[in-house]
Amino acid sequence: MVIVAGLALAFYEQSKEHPNPVVMALAVIAFMLGIMKLSSKIPSKHNEDEHDETSDRG
Question: Which of 17, 34, 35, 43 makes an SS bond possible with 2, Cβ 3.0 to 4.6 Å?
Answer without folding.
Answer: 34
